[in-house]
Amino acid sequence: MRRARSCGGVIDQRFDLRSLMMIVFSGVLAFLASPGCAVEVAVDAGHTLAAHGASSARGGREFDFNRVLAKRVSHELGLRQLDVRPINFDGKIESLAARPEQAAGADFFISIHHDSVHADLLQEWDWQGSPQTYSDDYSGFALFVSHDSPDLATSLRCASAIGARLRRLGFQPARHHANPPSGTPRAVADAANAVHYYDKLVVLYRTTLPAVLFEAGVIKNRDEELLLLDANRQARMADGIATGIAACLYAAQGSNGKPQRAAPTATVPTPLSGKQGPLPAPRTPAFRPFDTPLHRPSRTRSLSPPSPFSAPVPH
Ligand SMILES: [Zn+2]
User: Fold this and answer.
1) Is residue 217 within a helix (H) or strand (E), and if so which, with residue range?
2) What residues pack around ion ligand 1 (CB closer than 5 A)?
């Protein structure tokens, strides 16, 4: 198993206030200028072949949705020169705990899922001769973090960055998790960007790195299921997720044209207070223009949905 890489040098000086400020500043500059320090993101395909998670309104398996989007997110991260560590892309991981274990040493963990709704809220319908359940009342993406995260500040910052980028691309955030008519309410962390707390998820707290669980949308919603199966839309969503992660983890582009890793994920001494505190969030997130209009397929329910297996997915 790979361990965390060291990308910075050791600074050996005496600490008075002025030198401490210089150390922090020069340390960040040295960190940003360090070659070979690409950020690594562990991308987890939620659930498994054997335990596939939710079923969609048309009987599709959540794991298949998750794997397709996880591959697309990985592809987009690679385009931004971030390293990717695939977790459970074969659907055969042995346990929940094995996911964060396999991610140890990376810089960030994102688990990709697709949402269902509480069983009390489902209605029955017939899809191509087979009885299925659905709810068209709930939709949208959502992000979850745990209060018990070892790096809650970075987890929250990245979740908000992802949500903000997706909203800018035209994706709709879920609004029902804070006060659902059935099921467990989730405390709001960032209402605008659909970020909530979900403290009992193993992948979010039994980890050594900042972690986010992403729900791409509600596959029990008959319209949203079709949207979530659309390959162009999947690519745009993956694009938004990767941009949000890059914006969160990277500070600026270096002189060699590559994004440089930002030191701020760890706490450092705050020069003015002498206390431990996070560095400011990166302010130069833009890498490529992505603001072309969102493609949406027709919302005709009578069409057979494309198979999540058949969509061209980057490998
Ligand atoms: Zn799931």
Assistant:
1) strand 211-218
2) 46, 53, 113
